[in-house]
Amino acid sequence: MSDAREFARICKVLSVDTRVRIIQMLKGEALCVGALSNGLGVTAGAVSQHLRILRDAGLVVDEKQGYYVHYRLNNKTIAKWKNVTERFLKPGTGNVKPCRQEISERTKPCAKKTNPAAKNPKI
Q1: pLDDT confidence band for 3 (50 / 70 / 90)
Q2: Quick one: CA torsion of 61, 62, 63, 69, rounded to 10 degrees?
Q3: pLDDT band at residue 88 under the 50/70/90 scheme
Q4: Could you tell me the domains of the chain?
Q5: For residue 121, what is the enclosing H or E element?
Q6: Per-residue pLDDT averaged across 3-17, rounded?
Q7: Which of 104, 103, 123 minimizes the C-alpha distance to 114?
Q8: Are residues 66 and 86 in contact, defined by beta-carbon separation less than 8 angstroms?
Q9: Parallel/antiparallel/unpaired status of strands 31-32 and 68-73
Q10: Is the per-residue pLDDT at 80 higher than 90?
Q11: DSSP annotation of 65
């Protein structure tokens, strides 16, 4: 997958503030849906939906502990996303070729267009 496509996928996954807040909460420790729900002030169902998206993206992994499922960040995916983001944002790595025109040519004013009807009222 190209860096641009992967970066767009990362942005899509992180485009919802609740998901970003979940990631922030999981930086410290593994948490269950109930703890995340209480901390975020949203329903457990909403948290579960966001966790599904984060899990499908590989950003979180789940671990069954007794009756509860705890979620934690996947450090391998975080490292991969960091590298993709750094490569994507690094200056001079795009595929666009720089303009070869001289600066003076780029700053010349455009030629005035004349209205043919103004010269010849019969038109």
Answers
A1: confident
A2: 160
A3: confident
A4: 3-89 (1.10.10.10)
A5: none
A6: 90
A7: 123
A8: no
A9: antiparallel
A10: yes
A11: E
Identity of the amino acid at 65: Q
CA angle 40/77/31 to nearest 5° reads: 30
CA separation for the pair 56, 114 (Å, rounded): 60
**CA geometry: angle 93, 84, 33, nearest 5 deg:** 155
Rounded to whole angstroms, the Cα distance separating 97 from 90 reads 15
Residue 31 CB: number of other CB atoms within 10 A?
A: 19
Q: Does the structure show a pLDDT above 60 at 102?
A: no
Run of H or E residues at 31: strand 31-32
Pairing mode, if any, of strands 31-32 and 60-65? unpaired
Structure tokens at 113: 């267009």
Cβ atoms of 61 and 72 closer than 8 Å: yes
Identity of the residue numbered 38: N
Residue keyed to tokens 């983001």: 85
Residue (of 62, 65, 42, 41) closest to 51 by Cα position: 62
Strand partners, 63: 70
